[in-house]
Design goal:
- It is a single chain.
- This protein is an alpha+beta fold.
- The protein folds into two domains: about 110 residues, no CATH class; about 120 residues, 3-Layer(aba) Sandwich (Aminopeptidase), CATH 3.40.630.
- Helices cover about 35% and strands about 30% of the residues.
- It is globular and about 60 Å long.
Length: about 260
């Protein structure tokens, strides 16, 4: 496990994080294409760049025009209004970001945070966190729905339902935080290679400020250590970021999503 003060190979860590989250997105979405060696993420029901883009780009300079043509055709063929490429410190060619910017692509940023080894201790004895069995998937889905998708359409809920089902199929661990007998929050851990990713952190509004997220994070970290991964990463929401910083997560870089209107 990465400890505070250890040197960090940013390109290597970015490569591990891309492989973790982009593989997960592919499995939750509708495309597991590996054309040109990249990840092609397709979730038409969630038409934001983070869920419809090409990532893990590892190309020589001469292949970039081919990638752009393939991306435009791919997303246009699926009826989406944009083509998008994600750039990180592991992307090659290393000047891809500046090339896309000069071509008129707009850019959106998303921070990536890595746990620095600070011990995380739950601080509320009223809370208990359990791994959610497949039979408890309905509880997990309900928590995600109430926090992230209040008032969502049946189509969006169908996407969330499929995502929870797929998470069990690929070996992710879902957690439920219980306040007595009431589900209060949830989270998910997905390990791939040396990287563990924490996803779907959510707390019901009536239980916020009671240590729910801290307890879930502690459970995730404990299992990540047990499974022997070296790094634990996440992408924070604006609301969650101050908590993650207090618990030892540090921003190491920002993903760049270069978007082109089709």
């Amino acid at each position: 496990m990465q400890e505070r003060g250890d040197s960090l190979d940013l390109s290597h860590v970015a490569d591990l994080w891309e492989e973790n989250q982009e593989y997960l997105k592919q499995q939750l979405g509708e495309s597991d294409s590996s054309r040109l060696g990249a990840h092609w993420v397709l979730m038409p029901d969630a038409p934001f760049p983070r869920f419809n883009h090409v990532s893990r780009v590892r190309l020589d300079e001469q292949s970039v025009p081919l990638l752009l043509d393939e991306a435009r055709a791919f997303y246009r063929g699926h009826g989406l209004p944009t083509s998008c490429l994600m750039v990180t410190p592991a992307t090659t060619p290393p000047d891809l970001a500046s090339r896309l910017y000069r071509m008129g692509f707009t850019v959106e940023y998303n921070p990536v945070m890595l746990w620095d080894g600070t011990p995380i201790q739950p601080d509320n004895p009223w809370l208990r966190v359990t791994q959610a069995s497949a039979e408890q998937a309905g509880h997990v889905l309900d928590l995600i729905r109430r926090v992230f998708f209040p008032g969502a359409t049946d189509r969006t809920l169908g996407m969330a339902r499929r995502g929870v089902a797929v998470s069990y199929r690929i070996g992710a661990i879902n957690y439920i935080a219980w306040w007595g007998s009431r589900p209060a929050g949830a989270g998910m851990l997905f390990c791939r290679g040396d990287m563990a990713g924490i996803y779907n952190m959510c707390t019901l509004p009536e239980f916020r400020g009671r240590g729910v997220a801290t307890a879930v994070l502690a459970a995730c970290i404990q299992d990540a250590q047990r499974l022997g991964v070296r790094y634990v990463g996440l992408t924070p929401t604006v609301m969650g970021r101050p908590l993650y910083e207090r618990l030892g997560f540090r921003e190491i870089y920002q993903e760049q999503y270069f978007v082109e209107r089709l």
